[in-house]
């Protein structure tokens, strides 16, 4: 195929050179070159033949021929060869991918077959050994031996299944009866001594805070005891005092009353909730510095404050000058004599007092001197 392809192309090349020398677009040389290109186009070619003969590169020179007919025919032939190359390369890629897939399937099938054969061989070996053992036994004893073996095997299987059934609920009971493991905290280790800051006043505040926060260990309930024990009272006291010093300044400065309020509420024996929240981090040191005395107070103290406010509000509403009830005055609106009154000295001392009257029936107000 390669030699024939080269011979045809050489004839095309000679005819193209002759047509270029003649320099006429309708001469016999042009027709001879076009006929040679048509025969070359009908010749069956493949990717391997084109690659080995290298006729594609030489055909590109003919596509630049000065005669237009030869140029168009050569370009058509070159496009056809390009399509053939593209189709064959894509087909080869698909076939290679299918071959790889089939090879992987065959490999997996071989491994599975090998496994099955191994299993079958082992099982057959077991059967042969048992048959040999049975053949060595007498005929009368073989029946008894096989029966005893079957009975033993059945008993073992039934016993194992019963044991498995019995073991499952026991394991479930053990899992359900196990206590939940306590949560492990991977925080920093607890401090064994107070961190000093070379300031006697600040060190005293830290010691008082640590002493107050350490009470939470005895006051905590069983539900949160593990969480409380994982907290470090000394470390929290140092953090609280540092934030207080940054935001409020020194304890004997302008904010000394705020210091006293915080220290009083933290050390208050009737206010364990505030200590617990500060130790567990539910109330941050920054929030503690901005809390009012009412917010830091215990629940009992808040209830007492609310009662005091309600009582004061009630007294304020019913406060004012005392009013007397009488039937001496007659209401000019409704004509009833159910009235209340009180007197005030609204003018000078030598003038009589002013009497303010209110009708109980229609709430009419009037005054007289």
From TrEMBL:
<dbReference type="InterPro" id="IPR006289">
    <property type="entry name" value="TFSII"/>
</dbReference>
<keyword id="KW-0863">Zinc-finger</keyword>
<keyword id="KW-0805">Transcription regulation</keyword>
<feature type="domain" description="TFIIS-type">
    <location>
        <begin position="327"/>
        <end position="367"/>
    </location>
</feature>
<feature type="compositionally biased region" description="Basic and acidic residues">
    <location>
        <begin position="165"/>
        <end position="174"/>
    </location>
</feature>
<feature type="region of interest" description="Disordered">
    <location>
        <begin position="91"/>
        <end position="113"/>
    </location>
</feature>
<dbReference type="Pfam" id="PF01096">
    <property type="entry name" value="Zn_ribbon_TFIIS"/>
</dbReference>
<dbReference type="GO" id="GO:0005634">
    <property type="term" value="C:nucleus"/>
</dbReference>
<comment type="similarity">
    <text>Belongs to the TFS-II family.</text>
</comment>
<protein>
    <recommendedName>
        <fullName>Transcription elongation factor</fullName>
    </recommendedName>
</protein>
<dbReference type="InterPro" id="IPR035100">
    <property type="entry name" value="TF_IIS-typ"/>
</dbReference>
<dbReference type="InterPro" id="IPR017923">
    <property type="entry name" value="TFIIS_N"/>
</dbReference>
<keyword id="KW-0479">Metal-binding</keyword>
<dbReference type="Pfam" id="PF08711">
    <property type="entry name" value="Med26"/>
</dbReference>
<dbReference type="GO" id="GO:0006368">
    <property type="term" value="P:transcription elongation by RNA polymerase II"/>
</dbReference>
<dbReference type="InterPro" id="IPR001222">
    <property type="entry name" value="Znf_TFIIS"/>
</dbReference>
<dbReference type="InterPro" id="IPR003618">
    <property type="entry name" value="TFIIS_cen_dom"/>
</dbReference>
<dbReference type="GO" id="GO:0008270">
    <property type="term" value="F:zinc ion binding"/>
</dbReference>
<keyword id="KW-0238">DNA-binding</keyword>
<keyword id="KW-0539">Nucleus</keyword>
<dbReference type="GO" id="GO:0003677">
    <property type="term" value="F:DNA binding"/>
</dbReference>
<keyword id="KW-0862">Zinc</keyword>
<keyword id="KW-0804">Transcription</keyword>
<dbReference type="Pfam" id="PF07500">
    <property type="entry name" value="TFIIS_M"/>
</dbReference>
<feature type="domain" description="TFIIS central">
    <location>
        <begin position="201"/>
        <end position="324"/>
    </location>
</feature>
<dbReference type="InterPro" id="IPR036575">
    <property type="entry name" value="TFIIS_cen_dom_sf"/>
</dbReference>
<feature type="region of interest" description="Disordered">
    <location>
        <begin position="165"/>
        <end position="192"/>
    </location>
</feature>
<comment type="function">
    <text>Necessary for efficient RNA polymerase II transcription elongation past template-encoded arresting sites.</text>
</comment>
<feature type="domain" description="TFIIS N-terminal">
    <location>
        <begin position="10"/>
        <end position="88"/>
    </location>
</feature>
<dbReference type="InterPro" id="IPR035441">
    <property type="entry name" value="TFIIS/LEDGF_dom_sf"/>
</dbReference>
<dbReference type="InterPro" id="IPR003617">
    <property type="entry name" value="TFIIS/CRSP70_N_sub"/>
</dbReference>
